[in-house]
Design a protein that fits this description.
Largest sheet: 5 strands, parallel
Helix content: 40-55%
CATH class of the largest domain: Alpha Beta
Shape: globular
CATH topology of the largest domain: Rossmann fold
Number of domains: 3
CATH superfamily of the largest domain: P-loop containing nucleotide triphosphate hydrolases
Distance between the termini: 41 Å
Number of strands: 9
Strand content: 5-15%
Structural class: alpha/beta
Radius of gyration: 23 Å
Order of helices and strands: HEHEHHEEHEHEHEHHHHHHHEEH
Length: 371
């Protein structure tokens, strides 16, 4: 599998690919087929769940031109215009002069294009325009992937990461009105980590993106796949980890890619020959300590009823939470518990599947169990 070619067998933080990428064979095949046939695609999952890695890993197996834009740090429409224009420009894989020449031909209002270079000689592109031109420039920049695809007669794939942040920009209507005409040459992949907002954007009849995409659910990676992946990672470097210890990792991470890789990496770095069970617990304790500030911040942003509802969910293991006995234990009425649970669902702290509530972040659940 090529593990000997890398410095470490486990990777977390940022996107992963190649030998660091675990399974997702079925999802990758489905994505390739959908992209090749020109579908627009929606994927949402909690942060650190591997959705961006999955998409980038998949796109490397296609021959399509790819444009990637992360919405997370974009604060207004003008910044979106320039970040998107820069992402489009960088994706063209040609000289800065040729990029500028191409866009001057296709941009109708002829805005001023400036190019800056970093210390490595990599360019960044910017449009200079007045506030009166903002609406026109927005429409023209949104058309650029299609114009490029048409000019070169090739399919282009645009990936919008953390797309739920678009609601803060107020450009959903404009974006939808433009991209709906690109389907013959441009595929759009919308990624998001806030399920409640993404569902509202794409499944609400009153919203412009309603029924505009194929939704591909991303489930957890099965334990058997993780067992093989982790065992191979250790054995390649002549280190041993038992099935029991791998089971202890997965019991905590629940197959969550970021945490599974992080715990495995921590163990790998501290293991000389063989992983002992107490080493797994030590690695988990270390991880909880590192995440404590983040979890405390999330806890402090909840209402008192929501905090109490989380304790109830842990107590009931997410099932049959509206029984009289369970509600009485935490001094809830059915209406007050329902309101608290709805608030937690809307904040994407918990989710509901097959009648069972569960924490979207398994380490946050463990943190509260020990709190």
């Amino acid at each position: 599998m090529g593990y000997s070619m890398i410095k470490r067998p486990f990777h977390y933080g940022g996107t992963v690919d190649n030998v660091h990428f675990c399974n997702r064979v079925k999802e990758t095949k489905e994505l390739i087929t959908d992209i090749d046939t020109g579908l627009n695609i929606l994927l949402y999952a909690p942060r650190r769940f591997g959705k961006t890695s999955l998409v980038l890993h998949t796109l490397k197996q296609t021959k399509h031109q790819t444009i990637f834009l992360d919405f997370m740090s974009i604060v207004d429409t003008d910044e979106f215009i320039n970040e998107y224009f820069n992402a489009i420009s960088k994706s063209l894989n040609t000289t800065a002069d040729k990029v500028v020449d191409f866009f001057k031909k296709v941009l109708g209002i002829r805005p001023n294009i400036s190019v800056d270079f970093d210390t490595n000689g990599s360019p960044s592109f910017k449009l200079n325009f007045s506030s009166n031109e903002s609406k026109i420039v927005l429409k023209e920049v949104l058309e650029l992937p299609y114009l490029y695809a048409k000019h070169h007669n090739e399919r282009v794939v645009v990936v919008f990461d953390e797309f739920q942040e678009v609601v803060n920009l107020g450009i959903e209507d404009k974006l939808r009105s433009v991209v709906q005409h690109h389907e013959d040459l441009v595929s759009y992949i919308f990624l998001g980590s806030k399920k409640s907002i993404m569902q509202n954007l794409f499944f609400d009849k009153s919203k412009p993106f309603y029924k505009s995409v194929k939704h591909i659910p991303i489930d957890k990676i099965e334990d058997d796949e993780w067992r093989e992946y982790i065992k191979n990672g250790f054995e390649t470097y002549h280190k041993n980890i038992s099935d029991e210890c791998i089971g202890d990792i997965l019991c905590v991470s629940k197959g969550f890619p970021y945490y599974t890789q992080q715990i495995a990496n921590e163990l790998f770095n501290t293991t000389i020959d063989t992983v002992e069970p107490e080493m797994v617990q030590s690695a988990i304790d270390s991880l909880l300590e590192k995440e404590e500030d983040l979890f405390l911040n999330e806890w402090n942003h909840l209402s008192q009823y929501q905090k109490k509802a989380l304790k109830l969910l842990i107590y009931a293991k997410g099932e049959n939470i509206y029984t009289k006995e369970t509600m009485a234990t935490f001094n809830f009425t059915s209406s007050s518990l329902k309101k608290a649970v709805e608030g937690l669902l809307n904040k994407d702290v918990i989710d509901l599947k097959s009648g069972k509530y569960y924490f979207q972040d398994p380490l946050f659940e463990l943190f509260l169990e020990r709190f």
